[in-house]
Write a structure and sequence with these properties.
Length: 200
């Protein structure tokens, strides 16, 4: 009888441990990021004044909102690096680091993306101006700095599903000058680490 009780307790403990690991490493990242109480939505088509962050030219601007401590941000670094290589001659890519807990250098961030010349900023105001409240998030502005897309990169954490490469679809649509594509809730609802502390 004691053996059965101990075996039952051991299996129960094992199930609890598995459930906890699943929550920590998978399920909580599939939940939408809570919208902050003081959140001010920025509508698509709004002209975004990014100040000194943007060079005035006719190229569209792609801003990657990134937190090195956010697992969701780390998952899609290879995907962002691919986008930079593929579209870097047609689009001005920028990285905005959002992390109040640690200090990172520009060189450290550039190294993560294998790009020595991508501009890196540490300005939380840019996120507010674009209506971003989590990381990672993609913001695409047209050549006049009007908000064309704000949302997720993919419905999968590692950005491996070609059918839901939302940010890349937005880039392609803008460059081809077609109508802005319509996306589902998985593209436009934030799923990542919340600001300002960037935790999930």
């Amino acid at each position: 009888m004691k053996k059965k009780i101990l075996l039952g307790l051991w299996f129960s403990l094992l199930l609890v441990a598995i459930a906890f690991l699943f929550w920590q490493n998978e399920y909580k990242y599939s939940l939408p990021t809570p919208i902050p109480k003081n959140y001010h939505d920025v509508a698509m088509g709004t002209k975004i004044d990014l100040g000194q962050c943007c060079v005035e030219d006719s190229k569209p601007v792609f801003i990657h909102f990134f937190n090195p401590d956010c697992p969701c941000s780390r998952f899609n670094v290879p995907h962002i690096s691919t986008l930079i290589k593929k579209y870097g001659d047609k689009i001005n890519f920028k990285i905005v680091v959002l992390n109040k807990q640690k200090n990172f250098t520009i060189e450290e961030i550039q190294k993560k993306f294998n790009s020595d010349d991508i501009p890196v900023f540490f300005d939380e105001e840019i996120a507010k101006k674009c209506g971003v409240f989590s990381t990672p998030q993609a913001v695409l502005l047209d050549g006049s700095h009007n908000l064309y897309y704000r949302g997720n990169y993919n419905k999968t954490r590692y950005c491996t599903n070609a059918d839901s490469n939302y940010a890349q679809m937005a880039i392609e649509s803008l460059l081809k000058k077609t109508n802005s594509p319509s996306f589902d809730a998985l593209a436009l609802r934030a799923y990542g680490c919340s600001l300002p502390k960037c935790n999930k």
